[in-house]
Amino acid sequence: MSLDRSELHALLYIKRVAEPPAPAAHDFVATVGVVEVAAAIRAGTAPAAVAAEVNRPDADIGPDLEALDRGQVRLLTPEDAEWPRERLACLEAGGLTPPLALWVRGTASLAELTASSVTVTGSRAATGYGNHVAAEFGFDFAEAGVTVVGGGGYGIEGAAHRGALIAERPTVVVLPCGVDRPYPAGHAVLLDNVAERGGLLVGEYPVGAAPARHRFAARVRLLAALGGATVVVEAGRRSGAAAIARTSASLGRRVYGVPGPITSTLSVGVHELLRDGPARLATAVADVELDGLSVAADGAVP
């Protein structure tokens, strides 16, 4: 972590008081720096747009400092060597707010893990077919040296992460809560395995932060950006998986959809992505252009 103590305290405070993505706070930090922004928020002199994003001006950073001191979690900033700058560069270019920092649990380098990566997502209420396909894709991507990125949820995402772990390869989970908090609770063992077997739990939110609807929405941009492409296995029409796919396409990433039965409501979203765009058909990992999953290919999608 490339911060002195005053900068660290200021950054932790900003991340506590201004809920990510907090675009005004992000821009203010880029202009004057974290120490000055934290001081302005505390003094009530921050620009109106920043003040509007502040919801907890008396936030306590004690739990964050304690977790860092104990080595339970780490905090990455854009100045760190393992910051995935090539992956996240598409956010600002696409009109979305990059994270000020990322919390991680695990010892691996996020930049290295996402140097060749794919986001696999889909329905939480997956069918047996969907779970089987997702696990198979996760295993085959991992065997090909591609890191599987996902949200760690029930159904498709959990199956894809398990597939990667069965292949004895690392995988990355992006959480809508603090990385110290197992979510969903039923995947506590899976999340522990991810962190302990060379992978990472990643998130924007401070220690102890609970999952919430707006945090799921904010997480979409990170899931879309951290993979070199997105593969959707089962998704409803207005699902989070479909939102990730469309965001991924808007950032210049390729999107792939795995078809399912035309009678299945869980395949409606995938079929619409295939019919109307932006998805390409994928029935196996062989259908995915693996060369396009590396950071060298970012921005090269026609």
UniProtKB/TrEMBL annotation:
Stretches that traverse the bilayer: none
Organism annotation: Saccharothrix variisporea
Annotated GO biological process: DNA-mediated transformation
Entry protein name: DNA processing protein
Gene3D superfamilies per record: 3.40.50.450
A Pfam family assignment: DNA_processg_A
The Smf/DprA SLOG domain, residue ranges: 75-288
Family membership noted in the UniProt record: Belongs to the DprA/Smf family.
